[in-house]
Amino acid sequence: MPVKKFPFSGFSSVAIHAGHEADPNYAHLTPIYASSTYVFDEAEQGMRRFSGEEKGYIYGRWGNPTITETEEKIAALESFGIAGETGNPIELKAILHASGMAALSTLVIGTLKAGDKILTHYSLYGGTQELFEKVLPPLGIEAIIVDLRDLHAAANAMKAASNIKMLYLETPANPTIQCVDIEELTLLAKANNLIVAVDNTFATPYLQQPFQYGVDYVFHSTTKFLNGHGTAIGGVLLGKDLAHMNGHITKVHRLLGGNSNPFDAFLLTQGMKTLEVRMERHCHNAMEVAGFLEQHPAVSKVNYLGLASHPDHYTATKQMRHPGAMLSFEMKDGLEAAKNFIDKLQMCIRAVSLGTCDTLISHPASMTHYSVPKEKREQYGITDGLIRMSVGIENVQDIIMDLEQALK
Ligand SMILES: Cc1ncc(COP(=O)(O)O)c(C=O)c1O
What we know:
It is built from 15 helices and twelve strands. By secondary structure, it is an alpha/beta fold. The chain has two domains: 11-272, Type I PLP-dependent aspartate aminotransferase-like (Major domain) (Aspartate Aminotransferase, domain 2), CATH 3.40.640.10; 276-407, Aspartate Aminotransferase, domain 1 (Alpha-Beta Complex), CATH 3.90.1150. A seven-stranded mixed sheet has the order 1-7-6-5-4-2-3, sandwiched between helices. Helix 4 crosses helix 9 and helix 13 packs across helix 15 (396-407). The longest helix is centred in the C-terminal third of the chain and has 20 residues, at 275-294. The protein is globular. The protein binds pyridoxal-5'-phosphate. Residues 99-101, 125, 127-128, 170, 174, 199, 201-202, 221, 223, 233, 235 line the site of pyridoxal-5'-phosphate.
């Protein structure tokens, strides 16, 4: 049984091999361990496992070999090529969850308490925004929302409000594809003793590695590009303070019960193996699609980080390998035109979510951001004519042909 402990030099080699342990039955892939509990040879062994004296699985909510491989692979990808203060590669701990929202819940409940405040940007995934505005305030945790692309406003907000404990960034962000400067904001946050957490879902570790800038936590909805095929809901929380991750955060994860399961973990592991090749194609296609849309007479505006016209183009260039696969655009004739366009699509899929091989198209105002009040939506640039696209990896000429016929 060969054990792969080779010093991988490339991202895809890590994506394919990291985290894998040779299977005792010589299976090529780590099997789906569909078992809720794990056997002790004798009572003493059970005691040693509970006390932490002996490593080993105990109970499925706490961990599972299929899940461990997935967690180690994600940790290896998020830390790939990043050296710590000592010059050695940084070590991260990843905890897989049932969904992105479960990972976010562990993060906020594991790090904040009543009276604490979160400083964040206004353009966030709708579910995150609702969590911050509806679920956390009754627990005494409040979100302060500022345009974090304005570093002076960010610095002033950190000084003005007492009890800000966390800077929470989502970049690029839903659905106007805004981008905030992770490096500059982390410097400001650290000068003010704040925890920094980044939702890296849209970028993936192939395009952007927030730990490079000294952030404390990264989280993903693995449902999206990491899985890549739309086969499972999932989330992951990663941290660099290993004692804290293995201690308090693991406790919160286990006790809140938002654990993943071996089947979804298996799907995610297989999906991540092709992350680099998928992201290269996604980004190439997105650039072509953005160029096509930008010159189309039915479209008044295209939000794509690869276009020089995007206000955050420079920030994206600074911190992302490529500008990503997400874009949004506004139909000149508003809601009716947006509905007509969506109804006429023949190959692109009418669905929310993102990051699958197939192109997904949705209408944020009536779908992902339906619960955000209209005046706030408009203030955030989520107009009735806005369409969001997760550009897939089909042959780009077919994507463009479908858009062209639907825009007629
Ligand atoms: C950027 C972002 N973060 C978090 C989430 C929540 O993830 P999940 O649906 O896996 O709970 C989503 C879901 O769409 C998302 O787009």
